[in-house]
Amino acid sequence: MDSKKVGSFISELRKKKNMTQQELGNKLNVTNKAVSKWETGDGYPEITTIPALAEVLGVSTSELLNGEIKGKGMNDEKEVVKKFNINLKMINKLKEGNNTNRILFVITSAFLIGIFTCMLCDYLINKAFGWSLYPLGALLIIWLIIIPIFKLKKHRIIISFTVFALSVIPYLFLIEYIAGEKRWVMPLALPIAILSIIALYIVLYLFIYTQIRKLYVTAISFIIFGVGINIALGQIIGEFVNHQQNTSTFINVFLSIFIACIIVMFEYKRTRKSSE
Asked: Which residues belong to any copy of the HTH cro/C1-type domain (predicted)?
């Protein structure tokens, strides 16, 4: 199916009807930008819009999809619609894959910015890497949990949970290393694990059982883990870690809110663009 040919055909028929793109769009309840994309071959009408579009332009559905009157190609209208639907699904699948890669690029870039900022501040203040390892570990765990949810199609929730479970133990040892003492690891392990698992279940529930867009849930995850859990952990381990922990908590909270805002703005802009 030649999108350029179909688009040119739509444009020709519209002009013969003395209609503007806006007027045609109003008849079909779509924007003039959508009509423009059809006519330039940059997009296809939705499958449910095709019969109404053909009726408005005064041609049959098969003629519309062939891009000519009494086309020599497919004569069976149902077959034409079926093949068009298959092509449309393939296009949407490719777009979804591209969108996923863009989303992961934005998330990964935000993580790298956050990690670099933490380590840079730590080094400039202390001339060494100390407390910055704490937010570094926290951000890394969140990233490892989120990536399978976007990239995998089967068992992604189980894999994410497994990654989380495997990350908790080394993360506790990381906290122990930062604190420089060993007497608090076991007393802290249980509350940290409970808080983290509860937070994870909340995030999983939002992903699986709600209609909230994935990127918005991702932003919520940053708030839950980067703000709520981070502050709670700061209170729990505050008596064991020196005053620099306050700096770490503040920076981690700030970066989590910052990253969440970036993700929300990106998704909002992407949603508006796709609705045009």
From this structure: 10-64
